[in-house]
Amino acid sequence: MPAVTVAYAAPGAEAQVAVDLPQGAVVADAVAASGLLDRLALDPRTLGYAIFGQRAAPGTPLVDGDRVELTRPLHADPKEARRQRAAAALPRKASPNARPKPG
Questions:
Q1: In the 8-state DSSP scheme, what is residue 98?
Q2: Share of the chain above pLDDT 90, in %
Q3: If 2 and its partner were Cys, which of 26, 53, 64, 93 is the partner (CB 3.0–4.6 Å)?
Q4: Is this model's pTM higher than 0.85 or not?
Q5: Residue 60: enclosing H or E segment and its boundaries?
Q6: Is residue 99 part of a domain?
Q7: What is the CATH number of the domain that holds 64?
């Protein structure tokens, strides 16, 4: 009988619930048994799942001691956000084709 932990964290809300599941249980079983979806009014259509930080599907089998994490969708593409920060930090270079300002 696997004993697993289901965890969720967001700004202003975090929860961790230990659940005992029958042999052969999967991620979806752990999430349902935790009651976190109802307790925190989470929309399961917007959530992803992970086991110890590694993406997992709802049908992924669990073993004793697993930590199932409910993940939230990204609001920004991390690569694009980094590009924007890098571009803002670099000094602007004049274009080689730029005309000199009169005066």
A1: P
A2: 56
A3: 64
A4: no
A5: none
A6: no
A7: 3.10.20.30
